[in-house]
Design brief:
11-stranded mixed sheet, 29% strand, flat, 35 strands, alpha+beta, 664 residues
Amino acid sequence: MALDSMHRPVAAHARIALATLLLGLAAFAPAKADDADAALLHPLFQDHAVLQRDQPIRIWGEAAPGAAVQVGLARHRRSARADASGRWSVELPALPAGGPHMLTARAGDVSRTVADVLVGDVWLCSGQSNMELQVWRSLDARAEIAGAASDTIRLLTVPQAGHPAPQTRFGADTRWQTVSPDSIRDFSAACYYFARELQKTVDVPMGLVNAAWGGSRIQAWTSAEALRAGGGLDAELDVLALYADTPEAAVARWGEVWTGWWQQRPGIATGDRPWDGDARGADWRDTPADLGAWERWGVPELAAFDGMLWYRTQVRLTVDQAAQPATLVLGPADEMDTTWVNGQAVGSTYGAGTPRAYALPQGLLHAGDNHIVVNVLDTYREGGLSGPASAHALNFADGSTVLLDGGWRYRVVPDAVGSPPRAPWQSAAGLSTLYNGMIAPLAGMRLRGMVWYQGESNTFEADAYAGLLRGLREDWRARFENPGLPFLVVQLANYGTPADAPGDSDWAALREAQRTVAGDPDTALAVTIDIGDRYDIHPANKQVLGKRLARAARHAVYGERIAPSGPVPQQARREGDDVVVTFADVEGGLFVHGAAGPVGFELCGAQSDSCRFVDARVEGDRVRLRADAGPTPVRVRYAWADAPLVNLFDAADQPAGPFEIEIR
């Protein structure tokens, strides 16, 4: 990701880092009911809220421990008593779509009145940057924003907050809004266009709850219990649990996990410990004085490098300085750092624009030379440790500062080493952090369904994604107390350089995982393989995406007898020398655009590198593939590339999505 230029003096960097640290600590603070008037109702219940129709309605909040609470909505009244922690909840009878209604709550002298409450269908829209992408970044944004007006579509954006333990309240203030040019500009384009299209056939109020974070992995959105059930993450989850109580001990333990991973990687020599050795040797080189994005250093091997670099510097301290409490301040690292001081891990943060501030354990520093080592991982566009040298310093308890301006050295990590483990407390790259901070506070809410648009940050582990996606779906169904809660999945769009020959593709493999999960009950897929942008990982055509999501919902949620997501492969069989693929969910037959036949079909033998493009032609709802000379085919692939060219559609202009199936 692009690095922000940093030209502030060190004091400014220290203030920014301290503010960031305090903000994070505030987000980690437990919810309190000190302000009884504000806390009486959970923040979900505000003016212009939408409640789910045709399901019992749960209302909850906080009051003084033991207080009696009376709640009213429409013609219904219920009472509850706050428990020892001050929490209370009531369940009201289901209501049909309609409104506006008034919601009231009273506990002693404290009362709240919420006006203009509608009852309709409530959707949770979640994922990473393509779900977060705002209306102002979508196609024809100026006209879309200027013409936005709806009193029956309501918007709520969950504040971005990560936490090591589940929370009951949001990390910041938020509110429900009606659709207007001001409110829609920064709201999720995918979520809004979906509801706008769906409302054409489902004429009820729509409540949209957007909980998204750019760059987030699916593991960050899944509860610790669900991740443990999936297996393989116990060590990381134990560190996360420790971090919630004693961060310093958790960081030290995480350092052991990280270094253990490093020492087991292929090509890493025994005794190779960059975090605590010196920086001599041919593989360590001097960085430019101003640091910054390594793509701009003029080093050919780094000109388009996505991966890891080690950075190293040292600072000489006096006896008095080393004896004081100290904080290591670093400028932003794009996009993730893991940092050591004198061989001990002291912190790890995700976020390209976030300054780092790591409190150092007492006794870690010593008089004389102290070594600071930073491992930086970048996976997209520009990466590196920001400069200038004044962005990095040790701040001491007596108010003094020592700049880390003695020069940095770097070492490139070979691609074969792979992607490192992420510190489990990191916001978007950690484990359960976004679930804890953004999904757990919604517990008790009734939903019509969930829309999930994520996967770009998990393409490096596509083989595990189907299990992770099923785990998240079932986890959220349990959280919202609905085992059949519909789940709509947006398949990854085309992105990157088109392939000129068959080959492996992590993006295609992840799309296949999404397609596989979409075949489960109460789950549907929106195919986007034709509306991406090869130059931009954030395609702007969210209007067509909204239409496809609405179509998937009409089928999977509302029971319309329409094909939910375009032609899907049903089977592949041999017919003489040919292979014939039969498609289901075809509306009005198969059609080819721009060529005599479909492009992008491959026949593959038993070996992984045996796939070859083949000629194809449409026959009704089938596609016939010419099995020409080559290895005996055992499977068929279609659109199997990061950015495939596709031209196979049905009469509803729905594309056939990417797939890989065996030949029977």
